[in-house]
Amino acid sequence: QSENSDKSSAESDSETEVDQVSVYHKLLATLKTSPESESEEEEDESESEEAEESETEMDSKGSQETGEGDEGEEDKNDVPGQEEGITATDAAEQTLGQEQADGADTSCDTSRGVIEEFTDVKHESEFSLETNFMEEESGGCSADERDNNSSQAFSEDPFKQHMDKELQEKEVEKMSTLPKTSSQSKWPRLGQLTFSSILEKHKTLKADKEMDVKQLYLHKPLESTWPKVNKQFLSSMNKPNDPFFTPLQRELFCIMNMYQDLFYPERNALTNGEEIRQVYCLHALNHVLKANAQVLSNNAKRRDRKPGTDSDDYRDQGLTRPKVLIIVPFRECALRIVHIFISLLEVNDKRKIDVSNKKRFKGEFGSDPEEKPPNLKRPEDYEAVFAGNIDDHFRIGVAILQKSMRLYAPFYSSDIIIASPLGMRTVIGAEGEKKRDFDFLSSIEILIIDQADVYLMQNWEHVLHLMKHINLLPLDSHGVDFSRVRMLNLNNWSRFYRQTLLFSALQDPQINSVFNKHCCNYVGQVAVRNVPVIGSISHVVVQLPHVFRRLEAESSTSVIDTRFQFFIDNVLPEYRDAIMSHTLIYVPSYFDYVRLRNYFKKEDLNFTHICEYTKKAAVCRARRFFLKGDKQFLLFTERFHFYKRYTIKGIRNIIFYELPTYSHFYSEICNMMKATDNAVDATWTCTVLYSKYDAQKLAAVVGIDRTAQMLQSKKNVHLFVTGEN
């Protein structure tokens, strides 16, 4: 088996590929690797003040990381743009050692961080849509007989209706220029929904309380396998006549099946994460099976047609084969998705589907549970997010025919691509690079972005880069038969037909921006817009006053400088006195962190600092200095907390330089004060800086009612939490 990059070029008739070297290899060669990146703290957590927490998760060193000094200096990284390169690749180097599991020949050299990518070229003809026919899939009747039997049902199929809709140029012009009109609706489980569209006034869509399997238009064998696969999420409360979906799944699938764009910002890794993954996998697989069945059926019709017959009736595919792109943060997520696909395709234990390269896939995407020390103490949500193999640089093509699945398919022979943002970024490349490829994204019909909030902690620029390169006209024909290509693709209107499903754990302006600017499906968009009634401040169990200090900024861009000036002029002077020692300053943005760190150095303040780039030894030292009071201030970044979740001991004063991205981080940081010894008589404080542009984050912390009051008033707000509020 030859090793090839999965960003393969167009394949020739002889089914060979040109070996390509990933841009990622060159990128890795420029990075300075840390000798400590392979190991983590494994000291047992004890009652001692100086005991360090054991840790096996990532050192949060991203794909753009450079080395730092002994005290955790990051001066070399102060160039704008470097901050966004924080990813989870370090911890992945440990789990990648499992790639040799089960005898998988992975040809990996993890010591250098270089992974030779594998692409399956052996099964090209077996999975080719051009050379297979429907008889091989469903047997028996001829293409015409089958077409006559199912034409009426197929015409009502949402897939058929969506893909066969022929937009007019005037309609496309409207979608490119006119603003969207919106309407509101409330559903039993999803809550408050906002429907947006341009082409026509929105028709009130109601959630189906009950679903008949025939109304779902599920392709075989999904109508028989889905109830079995989803059984683990169905409770006894589900009605007997609805044995298919949970209430959440039913409403989500109702929107998905209508091919509307969807933004759901209430995904929770602990509660509904897997429930959501199941239903979008069903939708993606259903779409691919229908699309491929249509192509295979038309293959048979074309084969049987009389010479001279018009061939324009068989436009059933895009300019390139990939139809579904699923973006997930870690390899473990890709592993679970593929397992769901396999389960949905296997009708019963006797009819197992053939999965090529399954052993290799298990080795490269699986993990060894014994690698994790048993004495780790981390929050449940952390354990759920960082379960399994947390390497964040991967991409894999999946080709599917009804009875078989091909993993590691070349992209131009794939139906589904599963990748991380970093995995996509390194194959798409940058302008000016010789080896870059994004033609395979030209005809994506369903884009699924799961756990979008995690990408804010990795590199949001990778997501934006992907959105700029999706549904563009390809630079090469890649051997396509243009007589089979849909007119929507030839007209470069693919983006108006693409369905985007966006799942996140939170509302965020950057995520909202992607949904609003890059989702232009002609059917319209649906966004869940529930407001938090009770904020995370109610989960603070220590008694301390919370002072919310409002700063006035003219615009969302000027708020960065305004916040810094407000902090050094109005907040910091109050904490310079030695009596205000043990002050932790929580900084969400790495840019702000660098700015503050440089200012503290310039002013010769007694401080230490921890960020996502800080080495393990420097982290231990900084925590010890802060605990003992040798350092008055501790600058502390949000991403370090996201990837580590250490308990910082010795905190007596907290300053939230900006509200946290994750609202529950607010209560977590405040509750760290419980770890402060001999503090019964101490006066603890918590100060929060906010502006009118922080409305969403503020509501998640204090609740919507308090937020409305605080934004109307220009005075500082004092709240006292007793642990029962």
From TrEMBL:
UniProt-annotated location(s): Nucleus, Nucleolus
Extent of Acidic residues compositional bias: 37-57, 67-76
A GO term from the CC aspect: small-subunit processome
InterPro entries named in the record: P-loop_NTPase (IPR027417), UTP25 (IPR010678), UTP25_C (IPR053939), UTP25_NTPase-like (IPR053940)
Pfam families associated with the record: Utp25_C, UTP25_NTPase-like
A GO term for molecular function: rRNA binding
Residue ranges with Basic and acidic residues bias: 1-10, 306-315
Residues forming coiled coils: none
Domain of life: Eukaryota
GO biological process terms, semicolon-separated: maturation of SSU-rRNA from tricistronic rRNA transcript (SSU-rRNA, 5.8S rRNA, LSU-rRNA)
Keywords (A to Z) from UniProt: Developmental protein, Nucleus, Phosphoprotein
Chief location of this protein within or outside the cell: nucleus
Limits of the UTP25 C-terminal domain: 536-720
Region (Disordered): 1-161, 296-315
Residue ranges occupied by any UTP25 NTP hydrolase-like domain in the UniProt entry: 259-526
Known function: Component of the ribosomal small subunit processome for the biogenesis of ribosomes, functions in pre-ribosomal RNA (pre-rRNA) processing. Essential for embryonic development in part through the regulation of p53 pathway. Controls the expansion growth of digestive organs and liver. Also involved in the sympathetic neuronal development. Mediates, with CAPN3, the proteasome-independent degradation of p53/TP53.
Subunit and interaction comment: Interacts with CAPN3; the interaction is required for CAPN3 translocation to the nucleolus.
Family that this chain belongs to: Belongs to the UTP25 family.
The protein's name: U3 small nucleolar RNA-associated protein 25 homolog
